[in-house]
Design goal:
Its main location: nucleus. There is one protein chain. By secondary structure, the chain is an alpha+beta fold. The protein folds into 2 domains: about 100 residues; about 180 residues, no CATH class. Helices cover about 45% and strands about 15% of the residues. The chain contains 10 helices and 7 strands. The strands form 2 sheets. It has a 4-stranded antiparallel sheet. A hairpin with a 2-residue loop joins strand 6 and strand 7. Helix 1 packs antiparallel against helix 4.
Length: about 325
Amino acid sequence: MDLRVDAGAATSSTELEALESRIALLTELTSRVESLRQNPAYLRPTAASASSASIAAVVPALGQAALVRQGFEHIKEFADKVQSERVQDVLKAAKEREAKDQSDLRASRRRQHLKRERAASPESPQPYRSFQPKTSPFPPDDTVSTPLRMDGLVEYIQAYNKEHPFRLHIWTATPRASGQRLSDEAIIRFTIRDVLTIFLTVGCTASDPTLVVEGATAFGPREKKPPHAQSGFVVFQRLSQYLAKMLQAHPQVSLPLFMVLLAAYEDLFIRRCSACERVIGVEGHVPPVARVWLAGAWDARHPACLQSKAADVGAQ
């Protein structure tokens, strides 16, 4: 019994020594490879590289020739060593061992794997999630009338101007003849007196005649710029950016629904942000240009406050 135990221990010790020898050989080869990677820097001393120039400046011509000769000798020695029977056997054994066991032995991966598999304790208390009202950039669709089409745009503008203190006008680069039929696209100028002017690009398609808002650009109330230009004031640039994001996220928003949003900017320069309770934000020094529909009413926020609020809700 003792003889069998001693024989088994001797066999295990021999296998361990062989494995350590293989690992040492592979480690040596890796070090040699890293060393040989430095050779190309001086194998061509006449090349116009920074490393070659620095070597040529400090090493005489005869010394450079010796370095080149030595570099090629090192490469040849390494090639002979790799092609030797012992190294080939070690590489073959390593490849076979890898094929049998392809598990990732890195400790970090193993810890992450165990962490994912660990089930939560049933006795652990669940984190408290405070109620967060659902926010939206627009009110529900049922707050507006039936979908608007291009042939009803003029009548809609006339009715809107009668019912609201704001003004809508169809903008054209050249005067439009009375009774002229509108095309599939139009530009509308929306004005809140002494607050802002917003140019809206609206359009429809043959498959869907519903009029949707395709673009919006904000300007100061006294800026005389065309719709395709940019405001000279940061506050209206930020407002244009916010409206562009809203339209990108909701590309099929109708004109009447979008007008409900624009009407909420009547108090742009006097309303406080609901998050930081400031009119002028710390970042950008602009008023809260974002509007979100919250609990049946409009909520004003700075874009930075809106993002931080969304991040806080997502983290809970």
